[in-house]
Design brief:
Helix content: 25-40%
Largest sheet: 9 strands, mixed
Distance between the termini: 18 Å
Strand order of the largest sheet: 1-2-11-15-12-16-19-17-18
Number of strands: 19
CATH topology of the largest domain: Aminopeptidase
CATH class of the largest domain: Alpha Beta
Length: about 475
């Protein structure tokens, strides 16, 4: 297998043949530098808060421009759609997700046209939680994101409530809503067994349990879900429950009597922007790879808690920029579309929008590779693969086995609504999702996902795996 040192030498040799522009070599140091930059406090967790995603987008496009890489040329788009019907840009509402609507530049207004050319704009509703978040139980103030997590669909609320504990016998699909809406819990904070709920109420694959069982609870003051799992913030959402909902772990007291709660939320229109770049291949075929990541993160939840998102997903973004350096200097056989998705943390909206409004036909995608949360020290790669992507896994396993220090395992899991590969897999695109499973995982979707807790030790192996895949997949 190629090593970074060998690739660097190749780039230096190529430099003598291309005096117009010296392409910087991919490197672990550049990887670290990008992660450090994008996970710094000035990006506010890369959401629309304080224009964090705009700042991140400006940085990413700036790095792409330095390499002389553009977006997909108009003639390439026109050629790819010859004899086919290109869909008009349109809105969509995927199952269990918000309405996604095309929009104009909006927050990017005033940017140079050269930068706007990289962007695909869309809009969606978002429950923003930026004000104070506090929970005090029997006079003891609990710690947000450590002792509890406010669920993403929670509304504004301020008040003190008596705490009651619901017997597990009421946690069934036929009893849960009727019992909690009986009128007994109008001004109460109801504690339920979250492990029992997850075991009992997920009655079929894909069920939206929150809309099914929490939205109807109009006669409950607050809901506290207590379970074994450490509480973590899952994603941003587009609807509100009637009451605030919290996740707590087993440290929450068994006999607590009163809880004082303050939360602030506002439903807003969020403008989001996918970033799309393109490196032409040697082949004249319309077939192309998509190498993708998401560059957004969760922003803030309460004024004191920034979700920095070093591993999730500054790491994938930094890897994609390194891959662009490599393929700019080493032209691939097939063209590569690089996509930095926005609104992944808002329920995969950027990838769903592109998959329904593609710039190039989906049937021309040779393979889709998604890199997410790869800044970890694990020896196993967690992967999900679409039904059509089986040969891709075989290829990756062969490349991994040939490496000087292979990963212990490419651990395959069923494809689900987990990351940006999913909408492409639903449409029959051969796709794989790649994530590293290591010590950094414990900081998932928390303010502890910082540069200091991120690992770059697997940079070279992931880099070689992806470049080897693009070079060898047939």
């Amino acid at each position: 297998m190629k090593t970074i040192a060998a690739l660097t030498m190749a780039l230096l040799v190529m430099g003598s043949c291309a005096p117009k522009q010296e392409i910087p070599a991919p490197s672990e140091q550049y990887y670290r530098d990008v992660v450090k930059e994008l996970s710094s406090a000035e990006y506010y967790g890369r959401s629309n808060y304080m224009n964090g995603t705009i700042k991140a987008g400006e940085f990413i496009i700036g790095e792409i421009e330095k390499l002389g890489i553009g977006t997909i040329p108009a003639d390439v788009i026109e050629k790819s759609w010859e004899g086919k019907t290109r869909p008009e840009l349109h809105s969509l509402q995927p199952e269990f997700k918000s309405l996604i609507t095309p929009c104009n530049a909006r927050r990017w207004e005033g940017a140079p046209e050269s930068r706007l050319a990289y962007l695909q704009h869309f809009n969606h509703p978002l429950n923003a939680q930026r004000g104070k978040v506090e929970m005090t139980v029997d006079g003891k103030t609990l710690r947000n994101t450590i002792d509890y997590t406010l669920k993403e669909f929670s509304p504004s609320f301020e008040g003190e409530l008596d705490i009651v504990y619901v017997d597990d016998k009421y946690i069934t699909p036929d009893k849960f809503c009727n019992y909690l809406n009986s009128g007994k819990f109008q001004d109460k904070a109801v504690v339920i067994n979250w492990d029992k709920f997850r075991e009992t109420m997920y009655t079929y694959p894909g069920i939206e349990v929150y809309k099914t069982y929490f939205v109807p609870l109009t006669k409950v003051g607050a809901l506290i879900c207590k379970g074994e799992l450490l509480p973590y913030f899952k994603s941003r959402n587009h609807f509100n429950t009637p009451m605030p909902v919290f996740i707590v772990d087993e440290s929450f007291p068994e006999n607590a009597r009163k809880v004082k709660i303050e939360t602030h939320a506002e439903m807003i229109d969020n403008d989001a922007h996918n970033i799309i770049a393109y490196i032409p291949g040697k082949s004249k075929s319309n077939e192309h790879f998509i190498l993708a990541c998401h560059y957004d993160h969760l922003g803030i939840c309460g004024p004191d808690d920034i979700f920095y998102g070093a591993n999730d997903n500054s790491s994938g973004t930094a890897m994609l920029l390194n891959l662009m350096r490599h393929f700019k200097a080493n032209q691939p056989e097939h063209s590569i579309v690089f996509i930095f998705f926005d609104a992944e943390e808002n329920n995969l909206l950027g990838s769903f929008f592109y998959a329904d409004n593609p710039m190039l036909p989906l049937e021309d995608i040779k393979y889709f590779v998604e890199l997410d949360m790869i800044g970890d020290n694990g020896e196993n790669i967690y992967c999900q693969i679409s039904d059509q992507g089986e040969r891709g896994l075989e290829c990756l396993n062969a490349i991994n086995a040939s490496m000087e220090k292979p990963f212990a395992k490419l651990d395959r899991h069923p494809m689900d609504d987990y990351a940006d590969h999913y909408p492409f897999g639903l449409k029959g695109v051969p796709a794989i999702y790649i994530e590293l499973d290591g010590d950094t995982n414990k900081n998932y979707h928390s303010p502890r996902d910082t540069y200091e807790n991120f690992h770059s030790c697997n940079f070279e192996r992931i880099f070689n795996l992806v470049t080897g895949f693009v070079d060898n997949y047939k």
